[in-house]
Design goal:
Layout (H helix, E strand, L loop, with lengths): L1 E3 L2 E3 L11 H26 L2 H7 E6 L5 E5 L17 E3 L1 E5 L5 E8 L11 E2 L6 E2 L16 H7 L6 H10 L1
Antiparallel strand pairs: 1-2, 3-4, 3-5, 6-7, 8-9
Length: 171
């Protein structure tokens, strides 16, 4: 044995605790874990799940009328590529109403007329009720949107000019 500076060292033995194989293994494992945590934190800060969920939306294929999920990519324009193989995918508005005017939990995707250049309001193909941009979610006790018939009556669609003028004179 060699004695120096108050420490004793044996020949063939590690000079410090850090040189033992068990401690070296633990240090390497901790270093790998720290790198893994760092990668995870950086990835979560650059691509948080909320952003990923926001990029995934329901679209509707203007060719087939079928709804589909699509994750928007940076710089992607609308219309997007639809399952039909065409660039006919438009953002869908969701209708949460039944024909009877009660809320439903499984929404119907609806293609707004404005996206395809069709004049006039859009009505849900399932329930026949008015659908607008940023269509509100139906809630119990909420007044349902107008049906096509109610909307046409309210906006006097189909009323000829002669009837319209007589209605104005009577008021």
């Amino acid at each position: 044995m060699y004695a120096g500076n108050g420490r004793e060292f044996a020949m063939g033995r590690p000079n410090s605790l850090l040189e033992t194989p068990a401690v070296k293994g633990v240090v390497i494992a901790l270093a790998i874990a720290a790198v893994g945590v760092a990668v995870y934190v950086v990835k979560r800060s650059l691509f948080p799940p909320v952003v990923t969920e926001e990029r995934t939306r329901i679209f509707i294929d203007a060719t087939t009328g079928q709804g589909f999920r699509h994750e928007l990519q940076m710089g992607e324009s609308i219309p997007v590529m639809a399952p039909s193989g065409n660039k006919t995918g438009y953002p869908a508005e969701l209708c949460y109403w039944t024909k009877e005017g009660t809320p439903k939990s499984d929404p119907t995707p609806v293609l707004l007329n404005v996206y395809i250049g069709k004049p006039g309001p859009t009505f849900c193909p399932d329930c026949g009720r008015l659908v607008v941009g940023n269509n509100p979610v139906a809630k119990p006790g909420m007044k349902p949107p107008l049906t096509r018939e109610e909307w046409e009556k309210e906006h006097m669609v189909g009323v000829g000019p002669e009837l319209l003028h007589s209605a104005e004179r009577n008021n």
